[in-house]
Amino acid sequence: MISVSKAMLPFYKAIANRPAYAAEWSKVVKSGDLERMQKLLRLVSPSLGDELGTNGIGYFITFPFPRSGVHFTNGTTIPPGSVRFFFETRAHRSIARSVLPLYRKLASCRTFALALARAIRRRDARVVARMIRLYVRTPALKSVSIESSGFALLFDYKFSKYPYRNLLIREDY
Predict the structure, then answer these.
(1) Which terminus has fewer CB within 10 Å in the chain: N or C?
(2) Of 144, 123, 140, whose CA–CA distance to 132 is shortest?
């Protein structure tokens, strides 16, 4: 979780602070152009972009840890089945601004990251939600859930027709 958070910080900062970059990112998510996504990612974080995907309504960036057989995936998406080829820049920028404090904390405080990981392993949804809500402080955050040995944050903005999920999940292979 720590290394994934560190790697994702420059990307979330770019989405939050650079409107033209965020608009271009939304465009390539909707088009499914993985090559262009890779180029955009590498503009802000050269270490990102090897394993990524899109479903036209969101994106996923996967970080393999080969020796352990573990992969972490981070991304933002509209829940499947709602719409096709739609991804709002405004919602994505709002999410990026909201999650930046959480990812900064995960990247910089090993104690916090380990405590969150323990709560996730124990399936203690109440503790996980409390820890995350300390740093994601927006009324648009509607729920925090434990999912695939990680967490999923559901955001619902008044200006958007669709909810969005920000995920940081662990997948064992």
Answers:
(1) C
(2) 144
φ, ψ at 170 (rounded to 5°): -105, 135
- The model's pTM is 0.94
pLDDT, tens digit, for every residue of 48-80?
Answer: 767 899 999 999 999 988 777 888 999 999 999
Place of tokens 């903005």: 157
Q: Which residues of 120-140 are buried (b: 16+ CB within 10 A; e: fewer)?
A: beeeeeeebbebbeebbeeeb
Contact 123, 146 (CB under 8 A): yes
Q: Count other Cβ atoms within 10 Å, centred on residue 37.
A: 22
Spell out the alpha helix ranges (H) of 18-164.
19-31, 34-44, 89-108, 110-121, 125-133
> What count of Cα atoms within 13 Å lies in the side-chain half-sphere of residue 121?
6
166 strand-pairing partners: 76, 153
Pairwise CA distance, residues 111 & 165, whole Å: 25
154 alpha-carbon distance from chain centroid: 11
Closest CA to 70 of 157, 141, 173: 173
